[in-house]
Amino acid sequence: MIKSLNTAATGMVAQQNNMDVIANNIANVNTAGFKKSRAEFEDLVYHTLKEPGQASGLNSVTPTGVQTGLGVRTAAVQKDFSMGQVVVTKNPLDMQIEGSGFFQVRTPDGDMAFTRDGSFKKDPNGRIVDKNGNVLIPEITIPQTSMALEISPAGEVRSLTAKDAAPEIIGQIDIAQFINPAGLKNVGKNLFIPSASSGQPASARPGTNGTGYLSQGEIESSNVNIVDEMVNMITAQRAYETNSKVIQTSDQMMQTAVNIK
Question: On the CB side of 238, how many CA atoms lie within 13 Å of its CA?
C-alpha cells in the first residue's frame, strides 16, 4: 500500500512540472522568437521480487520475473526550435532568420548571448541594440545622416545618406550556429547562453554553413500552437487527477486493513 502512495505522489509531482512547462508556453504565445518546450519523463528504479530468467525448477526459468515500478520523474525539458510564424512589421531594424541560427548580442557585463528575437532598435549612439539595450554583434553604428537602411539576405547593411548617392556599406550581420541548440541555457529576456551540452557557437554569414538568410522588416513570432497546448493541459490535468485518485484508493485500502478485527 505504501508503495502505491509514494508512486502516485511522484506522478503528481511530474504532472505539476508538466503543467508548469505548458503554462510557460501559453504565457509566451505572443513573445517574439520564443521557442516552446516539452517535458519528458522517465520511470524510476524498480523493486525486483524475482529476476527475469531466474530458475524456477529443473531445466526451467521464469519467463518474465516480478518487478514493481516505483514511480516517475522529469528527465528533461526539451526545446523545440521549429520556425514560428512570420509577422510583417515593415520596420527597417526588424529582422528574422529564415532557417537555423541566432543573432549575437553583448550583454552589459560583456558576455555573449544569443537570441531568435530580431526586434532591434537604435541606441543614443546609433548602435543597433535589442529591446534591453544589448548591442548586436558585430557592432554596427548607423550614421546620423542616414535616410534609409537596407539589410540584404546575406546580412550586408547599407545606409542611404542622400537621394542621389549610392548606398554605403556600414556593416555585416553574422549569425551563430550551435551543434546542439536544444542544449542552450535559457536566461530570460529572450536570450540563450552556451552550455557544455550546446557546444560553442560558430559564427557565419547568413546563408552559409547551414545558417538561414535574413529577412528585413519581419520578425519571427512564437512557435507555440495554442490548440496543442490546450490539449496538453487537459491531458496533464486528467493525469494529475488520476494520480490523486490512486492516493485516495490506497488510503481506503489501508483503512480497510486497519479495520479488520
Answer: 6
H runs (alpha helix) in 85-224 = none
Say yes or no: 105 and 206 in one domain.
yes
Q: What is the pLDDT of residues 16-60, one digit of tens each?
A: 999 999 999 999 999 999 999 999 999 998 888 888 878 777 777
Distance CA 184, CA 134 (A): 19
Number of other CB atoms surrounding residue 38 within 10 Å: 14
Q: Please tell me the total number of residues recorded for the chain in this structure.
A: 261
Q: Count how many domains the chain has.
A: 2
For 5-116, strand residue ranges (E) read 37-43, 46-50, 55-57, 60-61, 66-69, 72-79, 86-88, 95-98, 102-106, 112-115
| Whether residue 162 is found in the same domain as residue 240 | no
Structure confidence by residue, pLDDT tens digits, 187-228 = 999 999 999 999 999 999 999 988 999 999 999 999 999 999
167: domain range? 86-220
Give the three-class secondary structure for 123: coil
Same domain (yes/no): 128, 141? yes
**What SS3 state is found at 173?**
coil
H helix or E strand, kind and range, residue 156? strand 156-160
Residue 12 grid coordinates: 503528481
Residue 184 contacts residue 198 (beta carbons within 8 Å): yes
pTM over cut 0.90: no
One domain for residues 38 and 58: yes
Looking at the structure, tell me whether residues 69 and 56 fall in a common domain. yes
59 and 102 belong to one structural domain: no
Residue 87's nearest CA partner among 30, 138, 133 is: 30
Identify the bridge partners of residue 96 per DSSP, sorted by sequence position: 215
Residues 195, 239 share a domain: no
